[in-house]
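Troubleshooting: if your tokenizer reports a length mismatch, compare your output against this known-good record of 155 residues.
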Amino acid sequence: DDITKMLTMVVNEPTGLGRQARSEEFLVAGKTGTAQIASGGELKGGGHQLSFCGFFPADAPKYSCIVSIQTKGGLISGGGVAGVVFGDIAKRVMAHDARRDIDELIDSVYWYLPKEYRQYEFNELDREEKLKIAFENISLEKFRSMLDGYLEKVK
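Known-good structure output:
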């Protein structure tokens, strides 16, 4: 809807004030907030209330979060301070949500392969090789090279 589009733009547009909450892995939508805090009936010296309220993934909302931080100095930006915290929270929540039982992942490594390799059976890979493919932080090029090497061995 229109509101979701606008809130998504706050985070994902290059000039959006909430761009610090952005994720490369999933779509985030939200709104920044910055307010002065009165002290003794005056706005001077009271500090600021910095906030970011959002939801993710924006294209299929599952989680929402509000971050509110009081500060007496430093950066005065809801997106620049609370948005950073929101982004970190969102990334950790999504990473936790994506966790799988290790044996399930090892047994189903087939589904984590690039599409061009899904036609092959990898049941003969031993547990260590499956773990390496599933969990090692490697580039897609190295991943493809490993699989091509395996396919050469089993031909």
